[in-house]
Fold this sequence. Notes:
Layout: H1 8-39, H2 51-83, H3 88-113, H4 131-161, H5 169-200, H6 209-242, H7 250-263, H8 280-314, H9 322-325, H10 332-355, H11 357-363, H12 367-374, H13 377-397, H14 403-432, H15 460-487, H16 516-540
Helix pairs in contact: 1-2, 1-3, 1-15, 2-3, 2-4, 2-13, 3-4, 4-5, 5-6, 5-7, 6-8, 6-13, 7-8, 7-16, 8-10, 10-12, 10-13, 12-14, 13-14, 13-15, 14-15
The chain binds heme-as.
Amino acid sequence: xxxxxxxxxxxxxxxxxxxxxxxxxxxxxxxxxxxxxxxxxxxxxxxxxxxxxxxxxxxxxxxxxxxxxxxxxxxxxxxxxxxxxxxxxxxxxxxxxxxxxxxxxxxxxxxxxxxxxxxxxxxxxxxxxxxxxxxxxxxxxxxxxxxxxxxxxxxxxxxxxxxxxxxxxxxxxxxxxxxxxxxxxxxxxxxxxxxxxxxxxxxxxxxxxxxxxxxxxxxxxxxxxxxxxxxxxxxxxxxxxxxxxxxxxxxxxxxxxxxxxxxxxxxxxxxxxxxxxxxxxxxxxxxxxxxxxxxxxxxxxxxxxxxxxxxxxxxxxxxxxxxxxxxxxxxxxxxxxxxxxxxxxxxxxxxxxxxxxxxxxxxxxxxxxxxxxxxxxxxxxxxxxxxxxxxxxxxxxxxxxxxxxxxxxxxxxxxxxxxxxxxxxxxxxxxxxxxxxxxxxxxxxxxxxxxxxxxxxxxxxxxxxxxxxxxxxxxxxxxxxxxxxxxxxxxxxxxxxxxxxxxxxxxxxxxxxxxxxxxxxxxxxxxxxxxxxxxxxxxxxxxxxxxxxxxx
Length: 552
Ligand code: HAS
């Protein structure tokens, strides 16, 4: 299949997002390194810098900024590759959205660095940051909406020109993710605009804490699928091409994304199972819906195994597992993503434990949750993005992924895997042994912390070793990105990197899967059923609003 190089103007847009993503990545991982040293009392911060300021920067820059800018870089290049170059208006609005998102990011980051927003990435009230921090968050979301609607516009142009045809799988999945993101962000936009900003600027005296947290988690859980679904797009559409295979089932792939639109939003209370202000029935209902949102991930796991086995057998694999050996393990673009998938087995299993009402009592607000999200967003998502980076940057920069850089990439994948395994395992076990997620003191040599350490794996030293290896791996990755961007040899027509898109048979795919009105309608009904009464009760029986607290 001929290699489709997207328009230079679209490549620039995609590279701009990628550059912002990796700038946030390296600052965020540096903060992570500081954190492990502080936890081990190996580093004392200067008086103007405190632990939770560093942790807020770590969480915001990695979990929100790195992911979002990378995702839009991937969306822009993939939508241009599969639906054709952007028209001038779509490109203009994408750039406007990029600059609004960037402005919001810079504003929020300045507030964090100047010590006016040490409220962590979940910015729970009644901790109160400077009002400009919340303005920055609002701009960040609005900028992503502008880019999202611009991509929807591009998609609508394609559908008008291809009446009656199902859109390419990459485009379908991108639009599904954007729809999920737009609906999910409504929660955080409402609480930031109508609660946090007036409160932080002193226009109102208090804030309804329970309502603000519930609106945050209305957004907070689907946020994880905004991170995960672009990784799933890579798993469904890119990986089969990398192994020389094809999409196992177009219908299954599209249905799994529809199920995420339906079930990933009315589940936020599973982050609030220990909170007194929500009646048990609504927690139970949203826990049941949480178990529904697990289904599309299990479908994805099945689809991946089927894709690998079919291809491995085509290549001559025999016996129960002979097909495994036939997969292209020497291609780091594949191996990095396969390892990412493997991490999602314990990551997802941990999610199921978290969602179990009784077990959540054991793990909530402990270091277990920190371990959980390092092997969900920190590895399956992040390592999939790294695997995409290895070909996306040379594809966009017109350079080659040389053998020496491929070897370095394998070293980066191996170090990230080892570092994350050590750190996340220690965090899970420390959490089970009672280590809280947030503590007033930050050094683990505090006598209260001694009770949590047991054996080799569940202690802060293992966590620190893992975190240090991760930082070295991050540094290596940024070095590889720089090389691929500016210094690797220019590619010729023959050696140009391709944007891998697997063939997906749509002949038997039901067209109703692309009838967005139906699925958005069902999603709205589920959200209304799950949230209307409990949120109305939080407003009706609202206690006096809380004043703001600055604990730093
Ligand atoms: Fe989670 C807390 C429940 C998935 C991220 N989660 C968090 C927080 C974050 C986060 C950031 O119910 C902390 C928020 C905070 O700051 O407080 N989570 C779940 C459930 C799932 C889940 C049920 N989480 C994720 C993903 C994340 C993420 C994905 C980021 C990307 N999570 C919770 C709950 C809490 C929580 C509670 C609150 C805890 C508390 O009390 O605070 C599900 O979506 C998981 C389904 C996934 C699976 C795994 C399928 C496996 C696949 C790979 C197969 C491998 C293959 C290849 C094919 C069931 C798809 C390799 C094969 C080999 C053989 C090697």
